[in-house]
Amino acid sequence: MIKIFIDEEPVEVEEGTTVLKAAERAGIHIPHLCYHPAFPPEGSCRMCLVEIEGFPKLELACSTVVKEDMKISTKSERVVEARKAVLEFLLAEHPLDCPICDKAGDCKLQDYYDEYGLFESQFKETKEKKEKKIKIGKHLILDQERCILCTRCVRFLKEVTKTQELGVFHRGVHSCVNIYDGAVIENNYTGNLAEICPVGAITDEDFRFKTRTWFLKEGESICPLCSRGCNILIQYHAGFSRFELPKRVYRIKARENPEVNGFWICDRGRYGYSYIDEGRTDQIILNKIERENVLTRENISEYLGEKIKSVASAEKASGIALILHTWLSNEELFLLHKIFRKGLKVEKIFFADLPQGKGDEYLLTSETSPNRRGAQEIGFDIKTVDLDALAKGTDFLLAFGPFLSGLFSLKDLKAALDKIKRKVLFSPHSNELDSLFDMVIPVALIAEKEGSLTNVEGIVQDFQPVLEPPGDSLPEWKVLSDLGKELGIDSDFFKKFPTPETILSEMGKTIPFFKRKND
Amino acid sequence: MKEKVLTEHFGLENLHKIDVYQKQGGYRATEKALKKMKPQEILEEVKKANLRGRGGAGFPAGVKWSFVPPTDKPKYLCVNADEGEPGTFKDRYIMSHNPHMLLEGIIITSFCVGISVAFIYIRGEYEAIALRLEQAISEAYEKGFLGKNILDSGFDLDIYVHRGAGAYICGEETALLESLEGKRGNPRLKPPFPASVGLFQCPTVINNVETISNISHIILNGAEWFVKQGLPKDGGTRIFGVSGMVKNPGIYELPLGTSLKDIIFKHAGGMKEGKKLKAVIPGGMSAPILTADEIDIKMDFDSLIEANSMLGSAAIIVIDDKTSILDVLKVITKFYSHESCGQCTPCRIGNSWINKIVKRIAEGKGKKEDIDNIVRLASNIEGNTLCPLGDAAAMPILSITKKFRKELESQLQP
Amino acid sequence: MSLEFSEKAKKKIEEIVSRYPQKEAAILPVLHITQQEFGFISDVQEKMVARILGVKPIRVRELVTFYTMLSRQSLGKYHIQVCTNLSCHLLGADNFVDYLVEKLGIKPGETTPDKKFTLSTVECLGACERAPCMMINFNYYGDMDPKKVDEILDKLK
After folding, report:
1. How far apart are CA A46 and CA A297, in angstroms?
2. What is the ipTM score, two decimals?
3. 0.90 surpassed by pTM
4. Which of A12, A329, A453, B216 is a plausible cystine mate for B104, CB 3.0–4.6 Å?
5. What is the mean pLDDT of residues B264-286?
6. pLDDT (tens digit, 9 = 90+) per residue, A30-60?
């Protein structure tokens, strides 16, 4: 460790740390545009210039490595003037597109001008004219006039995807970024380009003109569309939406996690968020109404408990069947395993998931659900649904998820399900399955509940709710926690209403895989 | 009486042919170096000679070579023959008149530093010169001065000519390396310096043509002799290139420390008929301008720095009183704007912006705040760029706006 | 129609590529040969060069647009490049350009209809002692005046 001084405050950092990173650690933000932690320093924007004692010129914070006793100033007059100068140069040739630019509110140039600029423009000449609407990717539009030539996009495609679709052409002030002869970028990581662009040069068509960034709130979540478990940010409208209700989610962004997804997410995860708002079931659907019951969120478990108890006894456990899926959280799967596998000794437990996809060599796995590993570690034998085995001798079916309809024809499903006396479906989405079950209970998505998931590499990741479950939807674990109590299983555990936090803690005690270092 | 080091035989017919060159004593230095000296001895001699770089920066050659660390990787020598600094044409003379003198310098330098592949990066426009160099290289191979086990010394060397394609920035050493590696001529961040991480990530020495051309003379005649031809701290001569409004533009090899006034009025014949001196650019376009009153100055590295200018490439451009300084500024700002690689913000945008202002003034639409703005913008470029091109642009602009402000202001709208 | 380098060019390219530890380093020399063979470097030539050197065509275009001497468009048989930098400017480069504009009937950047001459203004050619100067293809001509220009151009077929 070495000691340096930043703005006269002593800071201790490891050898080899850059001034930029050292300042970050000390809570000081040094403005920068071309630097991105995923790539080696580029040094071309000149925004991060700082004053270092003993150095005649201002030096780059992004690439200068600290030395013992270095005295750095991020606020001296020279530094303040240099930042203004760089901003002035950038803004001189930058089009005043803010009123129509999607990046407004999220734009580094705006932010830095607000903080370090605030000068009147002295540029009285004609700005350079370049192309403003080039489709460079399936969702991407490039505006060359807004581009500040930080080359993050070019470097991303060179270093991360290694596909090199973008290049810098011409020289000097005529320099511009572009694709080659309309060869649109088609890899699975294009969305990251719009995210790393510090200004509105690369914008996302998926987000284009839909809303303003300052109307958005964001929350941390985990992408469930494959088993990588990339960390994401869900950006949603807080309170009101100019467009179709009840659309809430407007954008998914990547969240840094060095162990799981680094800095990036794939396009499948970024653009596949329509499942959060579209086609949701938000009310309890009753097809075969039991006249004596009025079902609400509060008494579902009571009702289910009653029905299961009437079916389940030691000999008649064979009358119960379960169809699960691997979008369920670790906690939910654990409760299901505890209640039905261990508690009621149910044998007919099947899994219905989305069909396998095609993974890539980077983040996207071929497994299209987030918690297969979790289900395995909890002890489930992941059997696919066999309709005959399912229906044979089954009096009560508890099914989770809408995925069955993708695996079998409606005709076959109806034939099998008609043989089963009682059948309840927990699903977030409405589809043809609804009419085949006695009742459909609306459930919350991962974005709307708390819990944890186990990714393909065995990393257990917590998640918290970002959105409210719509209407009467509720998380599966709540129903299961009540159900366990109703069924009198492991009363020590279920007597105090288990929550995901206490459930995970219990899992750590009983399954070595889930033991956490701080338990 | 000081002697000429480099141009002594320049008038000789067919000097570029190896037989003629050898008859003048050519390749004797190579024999001496490879057969009778050790690399360390050669390095000491070059250091003692106080040979400073003749490309523009003036960095001591021996010191630069000593920065190359011991390594298992191959080492490279790049001879900078890009000669893009406006006003400069001396290397063109050396390479077309006496290419073998350059090759000898390359051989001895490479032997000293432990280099087995050397590239001559020559500007694309010098196609005829490149051909001449290639012919000379062929001749050198034939006579056993290049290739494997040169003169039974165990030392191998290949020299290749690599042509540029029209980019002044490729005269900057790290941009040269990028260009040689097949990329756009974008300068690199320093550190690391080319001596440790250079061509193909290997230790590399980069020197100007004139610098290397002095090496054989230092070896043959000794460092002491070399120093005597110049100044105690700056050994040797410079080939001054004089152009502009003089009677006899051309190259003049003279000792370091020669007076600028003498160079213009004694050697280059003075001003053209009917022209009066107004200003002189002493070291290539990037060197801050001197007024007619400031030419009583010694042409050496330190004297010019004291006068807030620089010796640079020793290219002297003589400007007369009928030439508009605004036009001069227009030519200068157009040049740097055109040649900026575009990588870093201040140079890319600043140079173009300043050029736009100057063009507007030249169209008669200059406003009173324009000169102040030009000064402010140029000051914001200086010291803030990734490579020296930013400074190379800012310095002449700042010196011209300072020393000729009245004339520039007279061009503005009232 | 598939375009190929001449046998002579192919041989030269092979020799050049062997000089460098990395194939990509040979791009610029190969582009010079390409421009010599075909007169310009369009997307067809870009792809050829890219194939030979194992790089993507986009990398080739980055270079063709960076370096002033490489051209994406076809040029006239004789490319007249007039220096307009400082020493040449002092010695009347502007008038020199005006004279050529009048004589050829084209502006800088344009080519004559019979595709014989392309006129360009360029930066310092490194022949300042012979200002004002020009380069036609790769031949240098200095100390220019209208009479000399007429002589030189009339000789070019």
Report:
1. 58
2. 0.97
3. yes
4. B216
5. 97
6. 999 999 999 999 999 999 999 999 999 999 9
Taking the C-alpha atoms of residue A9 and residue A7, their distance in angstroms, rounded to an integer, is 6
Answer yes or no: is A254 within a domain: no
Closest chain A CA to residue C59: A167
Query: Which residue in A167, A170, A171 is closest to C58 by CB distance?
Result: A167
Tell me the CATH class for B18-228.
alpha beta
CB contact under 8 A, C62 and A165: no
Q: What is the mean pLDDT of residues C58-74?
A: 97
Residue spans of the domains in chain B: they are 18-228, 237-320, 325-409
CA atoms of A108 and A147, how far apart (whole Å)? 12
β-bridge partners, B312: none
| Shared-domain flag, residues A347 and A486 | yes
Q: Which CATH architecture has domain B237-320?
A: Roll (3.10)
How far off is chain B from C99, nearest CA to CA, in Å?
Answer: 19
CATH code linked to domain B325-409: 1.20.1440.230
CATH number at residue A369: 3.40.50.740
CA distance B366 to chain C (A): 22
- How far is the alpha carbon of A157 from chain C, nearest alpha carbon, in Å? 12
Q: Same domain for A39 and A104? A: no
Would A268 be classed as within a structural domain? Answer: no
**Residue A316 — pLDDT band, cuts 50, 70, 90?**
low
- Both A359 and A468 in one domain: the answer is yes
Range of the domain at A8: 2-75
Q: Are residues A191 and A105 in the same domain?
A: yes
Residue A211 lies in a domain: no
* Chain B residues in contact with A174 (beta carbon < 8 A): 342
Q: Which residues contact A37 (CB under 8 A, 6 or more apart)?
A: A263
Please write the tens of the pLDDT for every residue from A175-209: 999 999 999 999 999 999 999 999 999 999 999 99
Which segments of A348-502 are extended strands (E)?
348-351, 396-400, 422-427, 439-442, 451-454, 460-463
Q: In this model, does residue C80 exceed pLDDT 50?
A: yes
| Selection from B217, B187, B192 nearest residue B204 by Cα | B192
What is the number of H-type helices and E-type strands within chain B?
18, 9
Query: Is A294 contained in some domain?
Result: yes
Q: Do residues A332 and A381 both lie within one domain?
A: yes
d(CA B126, CA C126): 9
Distance CA A298, CA B275 (A): 102
Q: Where are the alpha helices (DSSP H) in A352-420?
A: 372-378, 387-391, 410-418
Write the residue in C56, C57, C62 that is nearest to A169 by C-beta: C62
